[in-house]
From TrEMBL:
GO molecular function (one): orotidine-5'-phosphate decarboxylase activity
Top-level taxonomic group: Bacteria
Every Orotidine 5'-phosphate decarboxylase domain range: 17-261
Catalytic residues in the record: K96 (proton donor)
Pathway named in the protein's UniProt entry: Pyrimidine metabolism; UMP biosynthesis via de novo pathway; UMP from orotate: step 2/2
GO terms under biological process: 'de novo' pyrimidine nucleobase biosynthetic process; 'de novo' UMP biosynthetic process
Enzymatic reactions: orotidine 5'-phosphate + H(+) = UMP + CO2
Record's keyword annotation contains Lyase: yes
Name listed for the protein in its UniProt record: Orotidine 5'-phosphate decarboxylase
Gene designation: pyrF
SUPFAM superfamilies linked: Ribulose-phoshate binding barrel
Keywords: Decarboxylase, Lyase, Pyrimidine biosynthesis
Length: 273
């Protein structure tokens, strides 16, 4: 299969550079007039894909909000992943997995194996048990043509406490960039992406050699804007994939309003370009 990085670049060229987060918060289910149960969850999440599925390059369902409803919620997530595929969009499952290598192999099978009901085009991973612990996921992602987005500089204010810790030579965040560069080496669209928050005022990592996609959350509800991304990312800006959840989702349930919200973020980005 064509690798994730190339598939993403093609889809972004066709539909625009935006990842729409599907985060079915209880408050959003209320705001949409939906019940706090698997039926409400399903109307919400599948409603988003039905409204903007053919307009959006990639969706990021947030696993926690589906898991909160137990097996019925996970079944909804499976159907949402299928809907995304049918809309010929890409899926990035936000599960932020990270574990010792042997268990990581289990998570990798769950989210990246072709025959898994929860397989997504890409998956978010936490490298804070050591980048090397992610190796089973990296191997399976490479074989299956899927992508991985590894947390690097997160959008939350507490992130720097761990990510900017340094051994005197380089920070934890920079070591993650360096490891990602090692895996992506020699490829124009490497399979390892990074997650770097759009709420930051300074990157504090060197991205000059990075050849993967950079997922940028924190746009909208957390205060980040697409306007500031070119200055923040400099030469790495062409690799940036902004993602927004609540800012867009709060425009629903009306499908036209959801479509207008997506178009609004894309237009703001074009203006900033
Ligand atoms: O990996 C992520 O997607 C992520 C990393 C990060 O540093 N910050 C962050 O907000 N996210 C996710 O991005 C989404 C942000 O949602 P909104 O703030 O509603 O746009 C949530 O699903 C977060 O879990």
């Amino acid at each position: 299969m064509t690798g994730f990085g190339v598939r993403l670049a093609d889809k972004v060229a066709e539909r625009g550079n935006l990842c729409v987060g599907i985060d079915p918060h209880p408050q959003l289910l209320n705001a949409w007039g939906l019940t706090q149960d698997p039926a409400g969850l399903e109307s919400f999440a599948r409603g988003v894909v039905e409204a903007v599925g053919t307009q959006v390059a990639i969706f990021k369902p947030q696993s926690a909000f589906f898991e909160a409803f137990g097996s019925a919620g996970v079944a909804v997530l499976e159907r949402v992943l299928t809907d995304i595929r049918q809309a010929e969009s890409l899926s990035l499952l936000d599960a932020k997995r990270g574990d010792i290598g042997s268990t990581m192999a289990g998570y990798a099978r769950a989210y990246l194996a072709d025959d898994s009901p929860l397989a997504a085009d890409a998956l978010t991973l936490s490298p804070f048990l050591g980048f090397g612990s992610l190796q089973p996921a990296i191997e399976l992602a490479e074989r299956a043509g899927r992508g991985l987005y590894v947390l690097c500089r997160t959008s939350n204010p507490e992130g720097g406490q761990v990510q900017l810790a340094s051994d005197g030579q380089r920070s934890v965040a920079q070591s993650i960039v360096d490891e990602a560069n090692r895996v992506n080496a020699g490829r124009e669209h490497g399979p390892i992406g990074l997650v770097i928050g759009g709420t930051l005022t300074e990157l504090e990592v060197e991205l000059a050699d990075f050849t993967g996609s950079i997922l940028v959350p924190g746009i909208g509800a957390q205060g980040g804007t697409v306007d500031g991304l070119r200055d923040l990312f400099g030469a790495a800006y062409p690799r940036v994939l902004p993602t927004s959840s609540r800012e867009i989702l709060s425009a629903g349930p009306d499908p036209d309003s959801l479509r207008a919200a997506v178009a609004g973020v894309l237009t703001a980005q074009h203006r900033a370009d």
